[in-house]
Structures are given as structure tokens and as C-alpha cells.
Design goal:
With 188 residues, the chain is mainly α. The protein has five helices and no strands. The structure holds fe (ii) ion (2 copies). One fe (ii) ion (FE2) binds next to helix 3, helix 4 and helix 5.
């Protein structure tokens, strides 16, 4: 357990993100596709906040049990951890699907429409890989926590990191490709 905790979580350096200003001045009707992408991300933002809240409550509850360790409390903790884990797993799978759709359709369509977006799209691709690595790790942690609910704090730490990465990725993506989606009539 100690060894796993010392392995750094997959991460990226935000200061190395390429940017484009080519779509800064798009018209109102060309902003709709970007707004739709933002609305999809808002759904995930909401889900991330909900899972974070549930995990916080479970970790607080686990700490509250303290030294008593009565069977009924342990059973309650196990049930709460299982529910939180299942909630977390569902959200992670939904995020993975969202990224697979972007990889398979959205980014290739943008590459064809404007080769100048290449560096931004390469970076967005790279960030999907980092998020995927973290999701794989979280999946293993969900299995471990189901066996040992006392490790829910590890799950919370990994999930908090995932949330930070995703919130950052969503904003970068909206800023950099939102306008281009509208200009090139690529529907999200
Ligand atoms: Fe993305
Ligand atoms: Fe996205």
C-alpha cells in the first residue's frame, strides 16, 4: 500500500499548452457548437462535483468511526464506500466515452478542416492519454477499495486529481476549439 502511494499520479504541465487566436473573433451564430461542447462539459463538471461531495462524506464517515470499529458501523461504511465507488466508476466510464468520441470524430474533423490546429489537437490528444492513464489507475483503486473500504482516502486523492485535470482540460478545449467547431460546421 505504501509503495503505491509513492507512485506519482499521471499529470501534465499546463505552461506548455499550444494556443491559437485564429478563432477569437467568430460571429454569434458560429458560437453555438462551442456552447454545446461547453454544455456537455458542464454535465461532467456537475457529475465531478457530486462524486467529490459523496467521497468527502464517506471519508469523513470513515474517520468518524475511529477506534470503535463496531460491526454495524463497518457494514455501514462498506455500503457507503460501495455506493460511492459505483457512482465514481459510472462517471469515469462516461468521461472515457466522451474522450473516445472526440478522438474518433471531433479532432480528426478539425484536423481536416484546419491543419493549423494541429499543435492544439496534438496536445488535446496527449491530455486524453494522461486522463486515460489516471482512469485505469482509478479503476484499480475502485477494486482495491471494494476489498478494503479503509482505503477510501486513496480513492478520494486520485479522484480529486482527476477532477483538477478534467476541469482544466475542459476549459482549454472550449477556449481552443469552440470557435473552430462553429466556423467549420462540425457538430458536437
Ligand atoms: Fe477532450
Ligand atoms: Fe471534451
Amino acid at each position: 500500500m505504501v509503495e503505491e502511494a509513492t507512485v506519482p499520479l499521471p499529470d501534465w504541465d499546463e505552461t506548455t499548452r499550444p494556443t491559437t487566436s485564429a478563432y477569437d473573433e467568430v460571429g454569434a451564430d458560429e458560437r453555438t457548437a462551442g456552447e454545446h461542447l461547453r454544455a456537455i462539459h458542464d454535465m461532467y463538471r456537475q457529475g465531478l462535483a457530486q462524486v467529490a461531495h459523496v467521497l468527502d462524506q464517506v471519508v469523513d464517515g470513515a474517520a468518524g468511526i475511529g477506534e470503535a470499529r463496531e460491526a454495524v458501523q463497518q457494514l455501514g461504511l462498506r455500503t457507503a464506500v460501495e455506493r460511492a465507488g459505483s457512482f465514481c466508476g459510472q462517471l469515469c466510464r462516461a468521461v472515457e466515452t466522451h474522450h473516445r468520441i472526440e478522438d474518433a470524430y471531433l479532432y480528426p474533423a478539425l484536423r481536416i478542416a484546419d491543419g493549423g490546429l494541429g499543435p492544439v489537437l496534438d496536445r488535446l490528444d496527449d491530455e486524453h492519454v494522461v486522463v486515460h492513464e489516471l482512469l485505469v489507475r482509478l479503476d484499480a483503486t475502485l477494486v482495491a477499495v471494494a476489498r478494503d473500504p479503509g482505503r477510501v482516502d486513496v480513492l478520494l486523492a486520485e479522484f480529486t486529481h482527476l477532477r483538477r485535470l478534467l476541469e482544466s482540460h475542459f476549459v482549454y478545449e472550449e477556449d481552443q476549439i469552440g470557435g473552430a467547431l462553429g466556423v467549420h460546421r462540425i457538430t458536437v
